[in-house]
Predict the structure.
Amino acid sequence: MDKILRIDVGAEGGPKIKLTDLGSYAGLGGRAMTSAIVSKEVPPLCHPLGADNKFVIAPGLLSGTAAAMSGRISVGCKSPLTGGIKEANAGGQPSQMLARLGYAAIVLEGKPKDDTLYKIFINKDGVNIKPDNSLKTLGNYDVVEKMKSEFGEKIACISIGPAGEMKMSAASVACTDMEQRPTRHCGRGGVGAVMGSKGIKVIVIDDEGTAMRIPKDSEKFKEANRVFVAGLKKHPVSGQALPAYGTNVLTNIVNEAGGYPTRNFSSGRFEGASKISGETEAALENERGGEGSATHGCHRGCIIRCSGTFYDKDGNYVTKQPEYETVWAHGGNCGIDDLDAIAQIDRLDDDYGIDTIEMGATIGVAMEAGLAKFGDARAAINLVKEVGKGTDLGRILGNGAAVTGKVFGVERVPVVKGQSMPAYDPRTVQGMGVTYATSTMGADHTAGYAVTANILGVGGSVDPLKPVGQVELSRNLQIATAAVDATGMCIFIAFAVLDQPETFQALIDMINAFYDLNLKADDVANLGKSILKNEREFNKAAGFTPQHDRLPGYFSKEKLPPHNITFQVSDAELDQLFNW
Ligand code: SF4
């Protein structure tokens, strides 16, 4: 990965390509790369959909290698949803393929002169950009089918659906999985709207004729990878629970803990949880057969395999196995206990190119506003269809929970920095509340997954109902996560890495053997800190103050059943998170 592909979409005569070397970005990957480029090259006060914003795509440092779990791809930009810096990452095939083709980053810059839509094709022979207005308004599934018929079955695609074209703040960027389906999404922060603002519908990647990236020290790399894989397989979460039930194994656990946000964060326990749990979902998938079952990787080299395939009762493909966050967002958060309806909405979200978390939280707010009744799955499906059609109501909903709450006069809107909270109520999982409040990304569970020590007993134990120790927990997790997001590793390695020192060491050994480095644990922490520092400085220059590092007031006033508790971490403690 020795080059950066820059595409000026506003050039005279159509997009122009420029290849540059890495320069000061050498040694960076994933989130470290996207956040470095955005913080250095994007004016913090620019309009997120304007010429000055940049859309950056970066494989992780270990992507394209034989390292297990290394296929996450990061996209970064100034977010139209939060107004701050954004990195969102996804699995699927593009990261491994782009890395093998030698690209450390793709940067889309400028503003198109007209509304022509373009497709980009990248293979070992170079880069080709062509206008293709036949792609306009197509859903991600149709886009991928068209690209397959044009470029063959072995491609990977990075694309947007109609939501991205309409520049909605909940729009995602889709990445194709191993079956060439657009099911893995860089979901959060409206990154799809920024790709749409650059007039690019799809980036098609073909890595035929390329080889796996070769480590500087192959033997050490191989051995480190072996220890790493053994560590992942040994840990009960990555070795047993996730492969057996997928991420949705969390539904029963979080619900039991009383932290499952129900009917727009008005309760911490959902009476219908068992009907939509990972156990029920896995049993249903196994019963329906096909290539289903909860043991499916989203990219080459995944050995945890937390994913699966969801079929309807007649055996027809619907979508990938809906993730915990998606099942929660469109399930318990909307009072819906019907897995088939949830899977149908997941398919719509993926096809329109919308973040399932933002969309589910938005439907929850819309239900609170009276647009539909909690529990009414048919009404929820129809609301999501409004988004795909781009009706006036759909455009409101497609811009997320904060906009929807404002338009319909709802006070209980679960957002931080304009971004919806995921599937853990911050009153019952107070460490997550700290992460939601302080993350540079807005409310984001992946930024510092305190559920580990708060609920799962992984990486220590911190009482989820008390404020003590939550800031330190979230700080350490945010630093570690930022570093992991630079490697291209799936975040689900974290369970084994946090609990097993030899697995953490194996990860460092792999990076050292690949790049001929001598990094120690402190260096990894320093990488995480430097990423967060870049992001914090960008956000400060974009106008963010300590008052933006807060949860909405109702979390400190409304007691959440069943524990009847409020969020108790003080503002003064929150302000200490980045003092390391
Ligand atoms: S563990 Fe799950 S999310 Fe992570 S790479 Fe594998 S299938 Fe994808």
